């Protein structure tokens, strides 16, 4: 009798499972001729062959289940059924490798109010180009410039969802951490800045971390917005006396401007800050430096200083460059203006040369340079061979785009955008063809992205690529920052 009871119980349990499974499958499916409203929007995007799974949900919160089929035109398929499209990482990468240079066709059937609806199939294009980098680094911060609350710098694998903390302000909530910048995505050569009680400029190279004094009395400010010379000895910085104000109405809630700013070059061997009147003019504000990939030019932006804060919206930055001699650390004799703010009536910020020397990608806004607060800010591309610039309409939106950065192989770039909800900055990626055409951008993949972003209270900013994981230990870095030992620097004017 006991054996019969066990067999009967098992049979009953199996029947229940089968009934539930049948009920969860799509039944009486209604077909509609429209695209599925999915979050994030991955319809018709082009992705690297080694990107993490593009998990997605239906944008409509009343949708209870999804049945998603992904088929490769060169073979292979994935089928998932659940609250969201949750793809297995290994199976996803196998499918992408099998369809390198091809495309994936995605069929979405969603259940809402007990009714199953099948939408129009959409495609995802799989590039033949890999990312060329292991992942990215970024800062996460509350979307208010005045709040240093909980923030940190993190690194994230682009082939998976793994995130690692590089440095976190922990209990020191008044400590602002900013601008992690690597030399051509080199994980062993980078710099970032710390403001507050334990202020310092942290430089990592040759397996050693050095904490520089945050403020140089001669300089009159801190070392921010760095960009490495490709040879690694020099790093360009700006020094800014930054202020902020708040608008009581309109789309722009916060405005950030500099009472003064200059650009200089730091020599890591001599610990000298190399100043020059060409990039440190009295009545001008120089900003956002970057070196050309051959190291022969220093790009920067410059604007005539205004009366602050009343005339903040009249400050418009031009894009300029000056020759740089790696052997001596000296600048050339004159400055070239590549894009004039007087001619365009607009303001340029965050110029980043492509590593092949062909293009400069940058942000453009109506005025100022703190573009994350400017809804009109867009990404632009300048062709250095022709001198022509154009807006990258393929990637721009009606909200703020900022911080464009090239991947180390030059095939991809990322930027931040507030297009998602107008408040939080998210990271988007796009590919760039040899003739300067960009593909539709896609949001940085997350596991269960709707839930991830609904629960997140932080913006992503100052992102960058890294070829390999940064090996810095967060606790060791925290100990260096908390110590009082700082290396002094010397200002040298030439």
How would you explain this protein's 3D organization?
The chain has 494 residues and is mainly beta. The protein contains 5 helices and 36 strands. Strands 1, 3, 5, 6, 7, 8 and 9 form a 7-stranded mixed beta sheet that branches. Strands 19-20-21-22-36 form a 5-stranded mixed beta sheet, with no helix packed on it. Strand 17 (215-216) and strand 18 (221-222) form a beta hairpin. The N and C termini lie far apart (99 Å).
Protein topology:
Elements: H1 2-24, E1 30-31, E2 38-39, E3 46-47, E4 57-58, E5 63-72, E6 77-82, H2 89-98, E7 103-112, E8 115-118, E9 122-126, E10 135-141, E11 152-157, E12 163-168, E13 176-183, E14 186-195, E15 200-205, E16 208-213, E17 215-216, E18 221-222, E19 224-228, E20 234-246, E21 254-267, E22 272-275, E23 284-291, E24 297-304, E25 318-325, E26 330-339, H3 341-344, E27 347-353, E28 359-365, E29 378-383, E30 389-391, E31 401-406, E32 412-417, E33 426-431, E34 442-443, H4 449-455, E35 459-466, H5 474-482, E36 490-493
Parallel strand pairs: 1-8, 3-9, 22-36
Antiparallel strand pairs: 2-4, 5-6, 5-7, 7-8, 7-9, 10-11, 10-35, 11-12, 13-14, 14-15, 15-16, 17-18, 19-20, 20-21, 21-22, 23-24, 24-25, 25-26, 27-28, 28-29, 29-30, 31-32, 32-33, 33-34
